[in-house]
Amino acid sequence: MQDQPRLLFSQAGGSVPGLPPHLQDTEAEGRKQDIGDILQHIMTITDQSLDEAQARLLFHLLSIRGAEEEELPDPQLLRLDNMLVAEGVAGPEKGGGSAGAAAAAAAAAVGGTASDNSTEHSDYRAKLTQIRHIYHTELEKYEQACNEFTTHVMNLLREQSRTRPISPKEIERMVSIIHRKFSSIQIQLKQSTCEAVMILRSRFLDARRKRRNFSKQATEILNEYFYSHLSNPYPSEEAKEELAKKCSITVAQVSNWFGNKRIRYKKNIGKLQEEANVYAAKTAVTAKNSVAHGSQANSPSTPNSAGECLWATLHSQTLIRSEI
DNA sequence: TCACATGATTTAGC
DNA sequence: GCTAAATCATGTGA
């Protein structure tokens, strides 16, 4: 996870001392050309005579303002904001908050218990907190830079107003343009942060990476069901739910297990026949008791699909072979 | 360390 | 949407 902060600050490009790296590479993208130009103005302003700087900066800002006058709130920015809030990076910090929720969701996804995953989830939360910290630090820098630049431009305009009339409305519009420009820079920060969170999530929460074998008891329960319904090992939705509950796993995991079991049973029928016999003996004992109580629980449903019919055929052939 | 077991994912067919 | 089949990625035991 050492990559995360680096990812946030890894943009290549020309270096401009004193500004965050996000601000330093904006001119590389055609769409961000104006932002880059403005930033260049900021950075070169101290090397120029004040008059020259004023003239160039004002000319630039006035030349770009028209096209952006009626810009609507950026839906991309809204989406990024929503995502950052949902991930617990932006918005109010709650003790664990959304990160805790994400971790809990991860626990459910991998079918593990809370205690099994607590260490990993605390790591996840720690990394998320780190991202959150970097994000807020950078955001503060942007806001500060935006305020400083706005103040500077307003001072320049006031200076200009001595030589030509500049209305308060014009100043207001100029400020608005500057804010929009800095807002587009913020999108880059938010995109990088979202990317970092996604990578973090995939590393910590990817179920495949975090595969855990089911408990012996769970496997036992699933095998018992499978072999006692060998003629039609397709549990109904209700049966899956019941098995999931008994095994403390999800219904999807039950479906996965039966999918894997069917295919692997078919591939290794000879080998698994012994296992089938063991469970058949167990089932016989259970069935004896069930008959005594008139129970029909978990009875196999009748084959209702091509796959199930094929399976029934295959199973009957296997039985015949084993009889021979 | 390696081979095998196993849970999850992907893809294609229905 | 469910399933078979192939595949991936990780766990486990020798």
TrEMBL record:
The keyword Transcription regulation applies. Pfam families: Homeobox_KN, PBC. It comes from the Eukaryota. SMART domains: HOX (SM00389). Residues 1-26 are annotated as: Disordered. GO terms for molecular function: DNA binding; DNA-binding transcription factor activity, RNA polymerase II-specific. It is found in: Nucleus. One of its GO terms (cellular component) is nucleus. Residues 62-206 form the PBC domain. Residues 205-268 form the Homeobox domain. Residues 207-269 bind DNA. Keywords: DNA-binding, Homeobox, Nucleus, Transcription, Transcription regulation. Coiled coil: none annotated. Belongs to the TALE/PBX homeobox family. This is Pre-B-cell leukemia transcription factor 1-like. It comes from Callorhinchus milii (Ghost shark). The lineage of its organism: Eukaryota, Metazoa, Chordata, Craniata, Vertebrata. The gene is LOC103184810.
